[in-house]
């Protein structure tokens, strides 16, 4: 992914800071707007992981700090729910002006409720996804119930949210009450995906049920089983991002305007942490990784897994192509490959580690009625597959450093 820092102003001329996550080496096919949870910010693990999961699938995602939070200007005590909705509209206008209008709105917790309200004012939106979102704003007010009297008498009070202290003013409470009279889903007919954890202790799963019943079709529900409200486990937020990416494809016109921006056939991009690598091959995209024992997340095959996969696929294709040309009927061909480094046969007891050579173990299963002579011929053909030839020949790799801006 490529992360770009951006800034724009809301309706009150307050500067908001954001990060635009772009897919590696290709133009994005869809722009997405992300609304973080109440009192959170754009750099929290959930918005970061979800945004990056989407960008690996060709989406561009803008996550930004609401007024008074993170790096954005303004004072949080002077903000309210309506202000969050207006900030989302300002972010949408920024994307439309500088890049492309967003087609997907994603909101986490109170950000989910804000997304439902904002979607009505953003005509480009085709899909909305809420994550552990409340079905009513009255639920948010309950978190301040112990301070409502002080807020009413003094105009404000210090409340603890997520273990941190924030000043909440009376205008915030009144704004929640004003918007609670409205039904967020009224007037929304775009596709809606509700993701919610049955174990959420902050916003119970019953809120997802109420949202689902109130929503019009097309609507979908995905259980984030085992996750907490904040999606603290990295796997939960990555899972949510992948689910949203696949679900949204049904409602988007992906006539592949995305194109790989490179003179080469493959791009592999790795960030500053871990080993999870995004691979782009034309219009196809994969993830490579390392096992946890080596510091990876096991989100994809390791590099040698891809090399072995290439040999296996090429072998099966070559055998089947030859058989079809000969009009030999093969119901199915399987090629099983594993990779290792082993000592050469004349150096099995050597101490010299450099004496080990790359070894691919290959077994082929052919389901057919062919005779032994035909099967032996197919075994000979397997050794003629192009990848086999590449791996057993002396290859030359020419490397040069390419400037990022070139």
Give a verbal description of the structure:
This protein is α/β, with parallel strands linked by helices and 406 residues long. It folds into two domains: 2-135 and 183-249, Alpha/Beta hydrolase fold, catalytic domain (Rossmann fold); 303-391, K homology (KH) domain (GMP Synthetase, Chain A, domain 3, 2-Layer Sandwich), CATH 3.30.300.20. The protein has eleven helices and 15 strands. It has helices spanning 45-55, 81-98, 110-119, 138-142, 148-154, 170-180, 206-214, 234-249, 303-326, 372-382, 386-391; strands spanning 2-9, 15-22, 30-35, 59-64, 104-108, 127-131, 156-161, 164-169, 191-196, 219-223, 266-270, 277-281, 284-288, 330-343, 356-368. Helix 1 packs across helix 8 (234-249), helix 2 crosses helix 3 (110-119) and helix 9 (303-326) packs across helix 10 (372-382). It starts with a strand and ends in a 15-residue tail after the last helix. The relative contact order is 0.10. The model has no long low-confidence stretch (mean pLDDT 85).
Can I get a quick summary?
Helix content is 32%, strand content 25%. The chain is of the alpha/beta class and 406 residues long. The protein has an 8-stranded mixed beta sheet, sandwiched between helices. It has a 3-stranded antiparallel beta sheet with strand order 11-12-13, with no helix packed on it.
